[in-house]
Amino acid sequence: MQKRNGELSSLSLPAAPEGLSEHRGARPVGTGRARAKAIVLGEHAVVYGAPALALPVPQLGVTATAGYSAQSPADPDDFSLTMTGSDSRPKATQASGGLHRLTAEFRAAMGVPDSLHLDVIIDCAIPVGRGLGSSAACARAVVHALADLFDREVTPQMAFDLVQTAENVAHGRASGVDAMAVGATTPLLFQAGRAQELPIGCDGLFVVADSGVAGQTKDAVELLRQGFRQHPGSQAAFVRRASELTDTARLALAEGRPEELGAQLTEYHELLRAGGLSTDRIDGMVAAALDAGGLGAKITGGGMGGCVIALAREEQAAAVTAALLAAGADQTWSVPLREHPGHGH
């Protein structure tokens, strides 16, 4: 469970209502945190049971702060949400339904009285609609803020299930990779609801570049499904090829073959592009990263906008980053393979 590092005076609410503090040591304020993620390989195919490689992006974080007050008869709503940070309005619109369901599930699981009104403030630095897991990270931060507030212990499985509750409301059927990756401190292999830490044998780093255009995940998923329906056998072929590329990349990452790892990224981009999931700007950014010496590059996330992820040797990273910015990227973030927070050397 994440611990509280501070309090917001705006949420310094009255002492716990009678009956709650007698059972557990509820605090005036609870705080939870999560981070962004990027899919290295496996997006879309992971929904059909294929493996996916996911990378935490620690530079982009979410902090949720939760408080409570007595339920007012004049206000029957038992949950309020305030969001700050970049793109706060679209984030709040996207997240409100899922987070309302999440808090209801938390109450039921943890025995929090219905008579309490929950006040949640989320400060999110993750750009929305970029395939970086903003909604899952917000949900995970809220889970841990509520757990901190009411002094409840949340197991990893409970946290995953609660985040999935919110994700399924926000996006429809979610694979679970975002729910798992936004709580990770190391790169993960995810498949069929299970995750394991990835061994890292490569040097270099991933550069994640924001195209500045929000992706349309639901539209991308439906576009791919339409293609599968129109071409019998194409779904199985897509999942098979995606699995091959992801498995090869996993081994290359573990065994120290960065050139082979990069090649799988670029091949996966071509797979997604053939499905209509890329854009001219994304294609231009991928080409620019490769021309600048990148070992591989691809769109990351749902597609039809969003971000590019490129693999580069350390000595080429500055050139790759500059090339991505020149090709239209709004901003970039670098994640070293060997120096990832929480990963041992």
TrEMBL record:
Query: For this UniProt entry, which segments traverse the membrane?
Result: none
The GHMP kinase C-terminal domain covers 252-328
One example of the protein's molecular function in GO is: mevalonate kinase activity
* Subcellular location, record wording: Cytoplasm
Q: What is its EC number?
A: 2.7.1.36
Entry keyword Zinc-finger: no
**Pathway it belongs to?**
Isoprenoid biosynthesis; isopentenyl diphosphate biosynthesis via mevalonate pathway; isopentenyl diphosphate from (R)-mevalonate: step 1/3
- Region entry Disordered, spans: 1-29, 68-96
Which one Pfam family would you cite for this protein? GHMP_kinases_N
- Please give the SUPFAM superfamilies that the UniProt record associates with this protein: GHMP Kinase, C-terminal domain, Ribosomal protein S5 domain 2-like
Q: Which UniProt keywords apply?
A: ATP-binding, Cytoplasm, Kinase, Lipid biosynthesis, Lipid metabolism, Magnesium, Nucleotide-binding, Transferase
The chain positions of domain GHMP kinase N-terminal read 106-181
Give the similarity note.
Belongs to the GHMP kinase family. Mevalonate kinase subfamily.
List, alphabetically, the PANTHER family matched.
Answer: MEVALONATE KINASE (PTHR43290)
Q: Give the protein name, as stated in the record.
A: mevalonate kinase
Identify the gene encoding this protein.
mvk
